[in-house]
């Protein structure tokens, strides 16, 4: 039993940095580890895919127990809502002693900071293989070094919006301290901007600075992303969403009631398509215009120009790219949206809905 037993080691590290900031470093900017800890993490390079995407393959060179080691990891599940990501080792030194080795990381928000939970999931080659205690210690060191690095990092990632704040609160009449953190996360065809306001009031009856937050949030274009693996080839999946969009209603009739073309032709830029669908238990409609179509890279976009989404969002756009993978493909959907106001919720349920649609299309294609 010992030989076939999957085991775990766990560590938790407190950092002063917010959970979303630390998650962003490990998930979307994994190469930061080499910048933060150059004495022991020599390099981190991407071999396939893109940073921060499931299925991407990353190579690492690092020093463990005084020895220079290498590892090749595949990025596993990414849960952006729970700030969770995993890396499975598929090649390198670790697999000399272990049949399998996986890193699972979750970043938990806490008051004045966050806790990074790191779980090593491994299966030994044989019963006398030692537990990877030095690797868990190494994981601790890396997390702490990244935290220290993030404090110093000011190149557009974390900075203080001093002029903006002083323009509103020049004499510190209401707040003892006031700090505005700005995080810019590069994304394909743009970036995501996130603001965090930290303040200390002179008195309890001083109002929260909602107006400032509203001004920033109202002008903020944001993004949510999901990646879904399917066994079907990329060109087949792309063909459905681009050229045979009406097939989505056949694949998922319980929630997608109809998809009709109003202007143009299926699979052409500038065409207008109407959807009737069930979302959060409610019958909804949406009218989309087909945007850019890149047939070579299996990429297209749909911009919402009418319907229910525009009741809550000033703008709403879906960008899809289907990437070929060994034995299948990965469909990446990016939602690009601007809220009507600061208390409009992020369309997390729409991301889940997109996941369901993609999975249903995959199942539909298997039967075709």
From TrEMBL:
Q: Which GO terms describe its biological process?
A: defense response
Start and end residues of each Bet v I/Major latex protein domain: 4-153, 219-368
Q: Which domain of life is it from?
A: Eukaryota
Query: Cross-referenced SMART domains, in alphabetical order?
Result: Bet_v_1
Q: Which Gene3D superfamilies match?
A: 3.30.530.20
List the coiled-coil residues.
Answer: none
PANTHER family xrefs: MLP-LIKE PROTEIN 423
Q: What is this protein called?
A: MLP-like protein 34
Q: Which organism is it from?
A: Vigna radiata var. radiata (Mung bean)
């Amino acid at each position: 039993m010992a030989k076939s037993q999957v085991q775990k080691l766990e560590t938790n590290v407190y950092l002063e940095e917010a959970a979303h900031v630390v998650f962003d470093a490990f998930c979307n900017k994994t190469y930061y580890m080499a910048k933060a800890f150059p004495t022991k993490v020599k390099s981190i390079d991407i071999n396939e895919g893109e940073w921060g995407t499931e299925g991407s393959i990353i190579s690492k060179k690092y020093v463990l127990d005084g020895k220079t080691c290498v590892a090749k990891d595949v990025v596993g599940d990414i849960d952006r809502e729970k700030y969770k990501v995993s890396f499975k080792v598929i090649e390198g030194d670790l697999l000399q002693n272990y049949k399998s080795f996986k890193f699972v990381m979750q970043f938990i928000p806490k008051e004045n900071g966050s806790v990074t939970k790191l779980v090593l999931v491994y299966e030994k080659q044989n019963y006398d293989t030692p537990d990877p205690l030095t690797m868990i210690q190494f994981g601790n060191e890396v997390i702490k070094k990244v935290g220290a690095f993030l404090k110093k990092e000011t190149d557009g990632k974390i900075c203080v919006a001093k002029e903006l704040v002083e323009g509103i609160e020049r004499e510190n009449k209401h707040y003892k301290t006031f700090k505005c953190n700005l995080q810019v996360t590069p994304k394909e065809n743009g970036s995501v901007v996130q603001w965090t306001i930290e303040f200390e009031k002179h008195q309890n009856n001083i109002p929260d600075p909602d107006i400032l937050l509203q001004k920033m949030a109202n002008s903020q274009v944001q993004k949510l992303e999901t990646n879904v693996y399917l066994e079907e080839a990329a060109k087949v999946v792309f063909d459905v969403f681009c050229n045979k969009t009406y097939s989505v209603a056949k694949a998922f009739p319980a929630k997608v009631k109809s998809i009709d073309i109003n202007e143009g032709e299926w699979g052409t830029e500038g065409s207008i398509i109407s959807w009737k669908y069930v979302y959060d238990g409610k019958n909804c409609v949406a009218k989309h215009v087909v945007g850019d179509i890149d047939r070579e890279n299996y990429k297209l976009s749909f911009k919402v120009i009418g319907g229910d989404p525009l009741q809550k969002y000033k703008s709403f756009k879906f960008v899809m790219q289907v990437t070929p993978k060994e034995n299948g493909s990965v469909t990446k959907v990016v939602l690009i949206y601007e809220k009507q106001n600061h208390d409009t919720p992020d369309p997390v349920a729409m991301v889940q809905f997109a996941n369901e649609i993609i999975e249903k299309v995959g199942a539909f294609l298997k039967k075709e």
